[in-house]
Amino acid sequence: MQDRPSREELLQAVTRFLDEEVVPHLDGSRQFYCRVAANALRTVMRELDQEEEQLAAEWERLNALLHVEQQPPSRAALKQALRQRTEDLCERIRRGGADAGAYRTQVLDHVRASVKEKLLVSNPGWLR
Question: With 65 labelled, which of 29, 102, 109, 127 sits at a CA distance of 20 to 30 A?
């Protein structure tokens, strides 16, 4: 682990530099692309800030839909397991397993929560 500045502090510094020092002195496509770069950094900061909580929440929702399994110990293994479990859920949906009843409601609740979590990272303004 590194000391200061932290990765969050570094990202904030670069974002602030782009927003306050670079963008005002550009125009046209260069200004646009600089704004895109600053927004990309803000997305990364939100993902870093919310990732652990969102991964755990998604794991719990998928556990309720599929089967109880112990959460993998590392972040990389958790992400891989979530991708696999999401594929398993998609296959179950394709086979008609979520066409009706309480399971359908659970699946819809999971999908809504997952989309909301993704929007909280990619563009939280869309949730207003």
Answer: 127
The single-letter code of the amino acid at 113 is A
Q: Please tell me the number of Cα atoms within 13 Å of 113 on its side-chain side.
A: 16
Can you tell me the distance from the alpha carbon of 9 to that of 3, in angstroms, rounded to the nearest whole number? Answer: 11
Q: Which residues of 55-94 are buried (b: 16+ CB within 10 A; e: fewer)?
A: beebbebbeebeeeeeeeeeeeebeebbeebeeebeeeee
Give the domain ranges of the chain.
7-127
pTM for this prediction: 0.79
Each residue's pLDDT tens digit, 72-94: 989 999 999 999 999 999 999 99
Q: Which two tokens stand for residue 64?
A: 């309720």
